[in-house]
């Protein structure tokens, strides 16, 4: 009888151990992680649209003339904003007549004050990103001269955007 009890105890122990080992081997868990993300590059763009009036300024009309010569769409995604700068000679000059019949002008951007663009130009600071599609007007103001020598008078206004 002791052998039967011992045998029964060993069988029960084996079943318990077997279940414990088997259950433990299959219950083991493992995990891993996947880090996700992305990078957005700085994207600053400026689109300059030239108005037809830019090529047909009323240079010989006496008195002060203000003409919208184009528009600018500015966009920049930098968190600290960006700067817009306008530069030019601020003189409509002819390559054939020289400075003797040049016309000085000032420019205003987005309805702001009219300033000369020569030297360091005109700068505007934007303190936040902008994803605008609004065209901001660019106008020039000059004094027409009915006594100008026949020639083509020109200057180039450069608009630059830079991340801050």
Question: Can you describe what's shown?
Answer:
It is a single chain. The protein has one helix and eight strands; from the N terminus they run αββββββββ. The chain is an alpha+beta fold and 164 residues long. The protein has one domain: Immunoglobulin-like (Sandwich), CATH 2.60.40. The strands form two sheets. A five-stranded antiparallel sheet has the order 1-2-7-5-4, with no helix packed on it. A three-stranded antiparallel sheet has the order 6-3-8, with no helix packed on it. The termini are far apart. About 7% of the residues have low confidence.
Biggest beta sheet attributes: 5 strands, antiparallel
State the end-to-end CA separation.
Answer: 93 Å
| Beta-strand segment tally | 8
**Bulk shape:** rod-shaped
Class per helix and strand makeup: alpha+beta
CATH class descriptor name: Mainly Beta
What's the SSE blueprint?
Blueprint: H1 2-27, E1 44-50, E2 63-76, E3 82-87, E4 91-94, E5 98-109, E6 122-126, E7 136-144, E8 158-163
Antiparallel strand pairs: 1-2, 2-7, 3-6, 3-8, 4-5, 5-7
Concise structural overview:
With 164 residues, this protein is of the alpha+beta class.
Characteristic key phrases:
5-stranded antiparallel β-sheet, 8 strands, 164 residues, alpha+beta
